[in-house]
Design goal:
The protein is mainly α and 360 residues long. The chain is built from 20 helices and no strands. Helix 12 packs antiparallel against helix 13 and helix 16 (280-292) runs antiparallel to helix 17.
Length: 360
């Protein structure tokens, strides 16, 4: 495994055929520990690679997630419908496609900002929102969208938070501003306590805010591993949004990593896959759960293979499958999967093969 796992170098060094000649009784504990935290690894890696799951946030509340810390919810970018805006703001949005090339009013500047933000010209969008605010200082939507623009523009979270705080000052029940501010605190220096406080305020003003419950669960998970509280939040998310695959996935991680309740974790991953059949990370985590649950290596391999079917370049799944074959004493096949992981760029696989004198 990578990054969060113990180093396996000592197992592979100076072994002509590491998976065949190795004394598995001496390292089975090491391997079991490594894969028992495999679910956390898969979520961590997917989260690391997705990179954007907290950044693109807006008024609508659809979710999109990647994984291995729990997956926070993400709302669409600003070119989506703004379902929670007041009537005046909705009117402004509807007029954005009638952009005035020579804006004069606050509404026209706002519309131009909205259009340029949709085109990812965040610097220009911010200038337009500032013009709108000069003409209409109480336009909360301008502060709100300006916060989104700062967030998307190289993750300027401190400035985003300032904008959302101003939006809340003008509109105290602005649930989406609290929600996005929570995402920013969570993503910016891991300020989980502040993030949770913001999610709680968002839910106070919008009790059916499923995404806020989901993200609050992720924050509890990350904040000193408060797994039981995280599970409570995920359950609330599912009550509000029964088909939320990411909530099931996140709950699976909490059961697997925090509680070592592998059977419950697998049930959660199965539900996640039911609602999202191409959920690559859920298949990967199921593999890790089966590996840790009384060493069900055949099952683990079955789910790693499914993950690879969906994502043929999934280097980490090849790497983990190699370890599973190693546990079954299928040394030749195991080392081939490690080599495949290295060919796909997995640095740990490369390092292990290099230290054992093997090429890929």
């Amino acid at each position: 495994m990578k990054d969060t796992f113990i180093n396996m170098e000592h197992i592979f060094i100076n072994m002509d055929n590491p998976f065949i000649d190795i004394d598995y009784n001496t390292i089975i504990g090491t391997l079991s520990f490594l894969v028992s935290i495999g679910a956390f690894y898969f979520a961590y890696k997917a989260n690391q690679k997705s990179g954007q799951m907290l950044k693109k946030i807006s008024d609508d509340t659809n979710s999109i997630k990647e994984t291995l810390k729990p997956q926070p919810s993400e709302t669409p970018s600003t070119n989506q419908s703004h379902t929670e805006l007041n009537q005046e703001e909705k009117r402004i949005i509807e007029e954005s496609d009638k952009l005035n090339t020579n804006p004069q009013t606050a509404e026209e500047w706002f519309s131009k900002g909205f259009a340029t933000q949709t085109n990812k010209d965040y610097e220009k969008a911010i200038e337009c929102y500032q013009k709108a605010i000069e003409l209409k200082p109480n336009l909360a939507a301008a502060y709100y969208n300006m916060g989104l623009a700062y967030s998307d523009w190289n993750g300027q979270y401190e400035k985003s938070i300032e904008c959302w705080q101003k939006a809340i000052e003008l509109k105290p029940d602005y649930a989406e501003a609290y929600y996005n501010m929570g995402n920013a605190y969570r993503d910016w220096k891991g300020q989980y306590k502040k993030a949770i406080e913001c999610y709680q305020k968002a839910i106070e003003h919008k009790p059916d805010y499923a995404e806020a419950d989901n993200n609050m669960g992720a924050a509890y998970y990350a904040w000193d591993g408060q797994y039981e509280k995280a599970i409570e939040c995920y359950r609330k998310t599912i009550e509000l949004k029964p088909d939320d695959a990411s909530a099931y996935f996140n709950m699976g991680i909490a059961y697997q990593i925090g509680m070592q309740e592998y059977e419950k974790a697998i049930e959660c991953y199965e539900k996640a896959i039911e609602y999202k059949p191409d959920y690559v990370e859920a298949y990967g985590n199921m593999g890790a759960a089966y590996y840790a649950w009384d060493g069900q290596y055949e099952k683990a391999i079955e789910y790693y293979k499914k993950a690879i079917e969906l994502k043929p370049d999934y280097a980490e799944a090849y790497y983990n499958m190699g370890l599973a074959y190693g546990q079954k004493s299928s040394g030749k096949e195991g080392i081939e999967f490690i080599k495949k992981a290295a060919q796909l760029g997995d640095e740990d696989a490369k390092e292990l093969l290099k230290k054992s004198g093997k090429s890929w």
